[in-house]
User: What shape does this take?
Amino acid sequence: MYYLAEQDGLTLDERHLLIINKVREYYETYATTPAIRVLIQFLKVSGHPELASSLVLARLFPNGAAKSAAKYAGLPKPVKCV
Assistant: This one.
């Protein structure tokens, strides 16, 4: 995970790790990786409204939040993701 992020020029902090773990939690529950809108809603419902914004996620994951978080979590990219 850290190696992949470093290759993408990203240094992971606790916010990144929280999002990555939420993507894993979503995957374990629903057997699919969340798209960005679903990820935002899941973060809100999970008690992390400060991270549940497309702007915040874009700043944290400049190469695409849903796709990058899934990649670093070791999961397949979201179905509707290009």
